[in-house]
Batch of 3 targets.
Target 1
Amino acid sequence: MEWNGMKGSRRLATNPLNSFQLNSNQIRSSQPIQSELEVDYNTKFVDAVNPDAYTRLILDVLRGKQAAFVRDDELTESWKIFTPLLHRIEKEKTEPIRYQQGSRGPEIQDALVEDWGYIRNEDYVMYRGKVVHKSKI
């Protein structure tokens, strides 16, 4: 997920986690800084019962909560967008760009985002499958 200078991720498996990276402006400086917030439910809420993702999904169905489900008109529109893309991938035999599991992703992404004006902060690195500040390693 990304919102105007803020990146976030959620892990909803057996070990749920919310993680956010924020780009903030320093006082009296135009240089942005990155900060992070992470909430690991297994360490923050030790005594809480936390059902797995499928149990929560079934509970949402039984309780009539529709927020996690796509409406039929949304599904129709998404197929209008993705069907031509899937046909093109199949026709052109497009191969995915491979990269090492647990890494930041394919190296080509750096060139792509630089074209958009983004400058990567080298203070953050991938460590054990997560983005962390070098000082925390």
Target 2
Amino acid sequence: MKKTFLNDPKFHKIITFFTIMTAILLSFLLKSCSEHRVNTHKGETPVKSRQRENNKKLTSVGSNEGEQADKNPVPPLKEEDKTERIESPSPLSLPDFDQTEKEIKDTIASSPGDVGLILYDMQWERTISVNPDEIFESASMVKVPVMAEVFLQQQEGKLRLDQTLTLRDDQKAGGAGILKDKPSGTEYSVEELLNLMITQSDNTATDMLIELVGMESVENRMSALGLKNTTLKRKIYDFNAIDEGRDNYTTPEDMYILFKWIYGENHAQGQENPDKPSVGKSPLAAGNPGTGSINILTAENRDKILDILKKQERKDMIPRFLPEGLAVAHKTGGLLGILHDGGIIFPPGRKPYILIIMGKNVSDEEIMKEKYGKISETIYQRTVNNQSPFKTP
């Protein structure tokens, strides 16, 4: 057999060597090109490339920020920064007040008594009312007008909150409170009596304060504030006066006006000067009096009143189904067949709302208290959480 170079082993070794070297060189060139494309885009550095990708993501969701991404690129995140960005809360959306009103009226329709109600939402400046002008025996709700008069007389220099009153036997009233069991001759400051009157609904403390400021003064002041149907004709436990035709009355509208007055113009308008009393027209219903500082609470007294109301110990009606810890500045009231609760609810992250619920001819107090709780829950879920309070099966 004739020997050629194709059969020469040396030739095969040379061919193999060049094949391997060519493969290595091609692999090196391909890897270099690939890295160049990843790390550069029209002359960008790796950091700029990351900014471009972020901008693409923003633009893809159609946000205003994304539309401006080319002009205002997102700054690069530091590798060592592992903290996630927290999205800002979404803006409040307008609740369905028509549905809220329907649910409130449905609950009232199934209640064991006659109900009057006013809801005023300061966030949306919307009102829902049911029988707002209906006249009710005020029961212990009258203690809020008494407290208001005490603070206004203090502002006028007629009394001091730290002055003391001495308990007498003839002032001891039955019903709610601890003072009826205290020894006569015990002294209490006006401020102590105010706290007992509201937080424990102490009837004896109430009668001591009524003596201090005068029934007629309370009535006249409430009239000046625009409360058209609120009367104070008897002490709290004077049932003989009822037999004689003298009683204490009010309406849901009057109590709404009073609580809105307590909350104050500075609060309602979001002013930032808490030390300056509000001057000018109070933010009450149109046509209600309340001009001049004589009938306007100082910021200090307003805050004291709200703090006292927030310490109300009875929580079986308006606060019944509300979140634990939610601030509710309110006052309850009750007699045979009478059941009331009203005040200001302070949800977090928004303006408060005022809710007044009053009932008479109540045939079942326990059911009525639950109904008030459901009304309050409906309002909170519909206007604060913006959802139905009732779970679907």
Target 3
Amino acid sequence: MLSTSTSRRRICWGVAALVFVAVPANAGGPKPNPDTATSSHCSSAQYHQFDFWLGDWDVFEADKRVARVEVDRVLDGCALRERYNDEDGKQGQSLSIYDAGAKAWRQTWFTSRGEFLAIKGGLESGAMVLAGAFVNADGPDKLVRGTWTPDGNDVRETAITSTDEGKTWQPWFDLKFRPRAASTKANDINALKELDTEYQAAVKINDVATMDRLLADDFTLVTGSGKVYSKSDLLEEARSGRVQYEHQEDAEQTARVWGDTAVVTARLWEKGTDNGQPFDKTVWFSDTYVRTPNGWRYVFGQSSLAPPKP
């Protein structure tokens, strides 16, 4: 895992050595649909050393949500299955099981981008250590050492990396797993308002990365003059820096939710220059969002000029 993007963060599972702190089964967050019938072959304590990881988690870095992870029991309770979805659209799964013959834990990790890793390890001084080495075709080989530590109902995961065979180590990431809150209309409305405010702030400073993350790939904007813009049009405009904003703030913001679809409306004040020519206008807009496995995405926008003042 890397601190610069969740997609890159999760690559470390496919490339490195990981360390997990073993804790009692009830130390983690809420457990999503565990198998109630555990095989008699997998009932010993060794098979439950990863139980702290069971849960439905929102994953945060510096208080910013970067992924959702679900871990549950499969195969009559003998294995743990991880399902991972990050904010960049990357998906991954892992299977972890205690190998009684080898007296070691084994894990396989694979992603929607063709990454694969098989790692093994065991308890060392109260911590679960899973080790592996990544032979990097695009850079130096590396080792990664990560630690998962329960913190109340949360789990904190940190990692360090080494490119000199473990002689020196550098910080890699610091993540917090928090039990996923039940989706409610009030939560959705607050989240949507925050997302729409975040998007307008990104437009104001031509923040291409944030705009790219929030806009759906098939996004469309229709303006009051009848012009139609795609996601690529808006990103290209932001990259060019042609439009410079002094103000890009909304007011009278409302959000309405219907299942996995929502509409945010607000009055937006825009003031700045376009190719050096000043503009100062107020528009009303309606932004449509759709819930995806990776969170809400902005799919359609429509704006119209506010009526003239009497």
